[in-house]
Write a structure and sequence with these properties.
CATH architecture of the largest domain: Up-down Bundle
Oligomer: single chain
Strand content: under 5%
Number of domains: 2
Strand order of the largest sheet: 1-3-2
Largest sheet: 3 strands, antiparallel
Structural class: mainly alpha
Length: 214
């Protein structure tokens, strides 16, 4: 059973639930869905689900086809690398800002994400790892305190997780976790320069994975 922040709106909850279904390919790439079917699967009202659909369409996950349903974006060969290339700069900005503006609450969020990643590595569970990665990205956005950078990075991070779920292997998890922990360590040490460097190293690793999957 999912647990969401009680401060979230119904539209935000609908968005997060649909986002996870897209990342884990429960909504299959290239498939056609209907608004009514998604409302039924989420057991939520029409208005919040429609708002979530509009947001996901703007972010490139869904294509709204009047009278023809909702087309789920395909996973095109080579697009994962394009996503990583687009992430590089903004991830470094977020990492540096997180090290500079770190709060005790954000530090706890990073700790919890790191522990969840390590548990997922032990279980060789890609889905659990990507859920922990989502938690890490949320902690990063909160710590950085830069809503503009976070809004830019968020959809790219989700696109990357979607490709990762489809293409990555369980053998990739340990190295990815190691890079995330190195980045977290730099941030909680408040080392801005090192945090920026570790963010770029993580992007380089993801780029290698993307190239290997094409």
């Amino acid at each position: 059973m999912e647990h969401f922040d009680p401060g979230l709106s119904q539209a935000e909850i609908a968005y997060l639930r649909l986002e996870e279904m897209l990342v884990t390919l429960e909504l299959a790439p290239g498939s056609v869905q209907t608004e009514g079917a998604l409302i039924g699967r989420l057991a939520m009202g029409r208005t919040p689900v429609r708002e979530a659909i509009q947001r996901l369409a703007w972010e490139g996950f869904l294509q709204i086809r009047p009278r023809a349903g909702l087309a789920v974006a395909p996973l095109e060969p080579g697009d994962w690398l394009k996503v990583i290339e687009a992430r590089r700069g903004v991830e470094a900005v977020l990492a540096r800002a997180a090290a500079r503006n770190l709060t005790p609450g954000a530090a706890l969020g990073f700790r919890d994400a790191a522990l969840a990643m390590e548990a997922a590595v032990t279980r060789r569970d890609i889905r659990a790892f990507l859920l922990a990665d989502k938690d890490f990205d949320q902690a990063l956005a909160a710590a950085a305190d830069n809503v503009y950078a976070a809004r830019l990075a968020g959809p790219l991070q989700t696109h990357s997780r979607r490709f990762w779920f489809a293409r990555a292997r369980a053998d990739d998890l340990a190295e990815a976790a190691e890079h995330h922990v190195a980045l977290i360590t730099a941030i909680v040490s408040r080392d801005e320069d090192l945090a920026g460097e570790e963010a770029l190293r993580l992007m380089a690793l993801l780029a290698e994975m993307a190239e290997a999957s094409t």
